[in-house]
Amino acid sequence: MTTYIAILRGINVSGKNKILMQDLKLIFESLHFKNVQTYIQSGNVVFEAKSEKNLATLIQQKIKDQYGFDVPVIIRTVDEISEILKANPYLKQKNIELDKLHITFLSETPTKENLTKINTYHFEPDVFEIIGNEVYLYCPNGYGITKLSNTFFENKLKVSATTRNWKTVNEIA
Q1: Can the peptide bond before residue 125 be classed as cis, meaning omega within 30 degrees of 0?
Q2: pLDDT tens, 40-56?
């Protein structure tokens, strides 16, 4: 068994795509996942499963069948999350406020062409760096007003994305 983290995009935001965490836990248990735990209302689930390539698709389909809406699901192992945390390039910089750090998780590796294009965008003082399938963000004025949103990265990179703040990523790790 491997321990995974499912990061769901767009549930329980402004009353839209509402799924109670207890119900989400039951969905995962119905898929025969073990030791299922949820963390806060935004759709973070830690669970154990046999290694399987189609975990995200399986979870997405179960939610669609039960609730009637599509929810992008991004999967990482606990070991991957640990490496993602260590790789944050902004931790090495001075005067970084940890509560202004975020990670946008990408569903897949963007094309080189899209990576080249996105690096032409600059929204100072907000900055980002893409390493692997993660976008590391530093938004000194807060994530709520940045142009570096999930939608921005999805539109520019042509992949699904969801963002979590630094504290949440550390907690689910």
Answers
A1: yes
A2: 777 889 999 987 778 99
CB 1 within 8 A of CB 34: yes
| Cα torsion 137, 143, 146, 150: sign | positive
Average pLDDT, the chain: 91
Q: State the Cα–Cα distance between residues 131 and 138, nearest whole angstrom.
A: 14
Residues in Cβ contact with 2 at an 8 Å cutoff, skipping those fewer than 6 apart: 48, 49, 50, 51, 77
Residue that the structure tokens 């809406």 belong to: 69
Rounded-to-integer distance, Cα 69 and Cα 11, Å? 10
pLDDT digit string (tens) for 100-126?
999 999 999 999 999 999 999 999 999
Q: For residue 153, what are its two tokens?
A: 């990265």
Say how far apart CA 139 and CA 123 lie, in whole Å.
Answer: 10
The type of residue at 25 is K
**Whole-number Å distance between alpha carbons of 98 and 47:** 27
pLDDT of residue 12: 63
- Amino acid letter, 141: N
- Please give the DSSP secondary-structure letter assigned to residue 59: H
Task: Work out the angle at residue 85's Cα, subtended by the Cα atoms of residues 106 and 87, and round it to the nearest 5 degrees.
Answer: 85
Q: What is the DSSP letter of 70?
A: -
Higher pLDDT, 139 or 69: 139
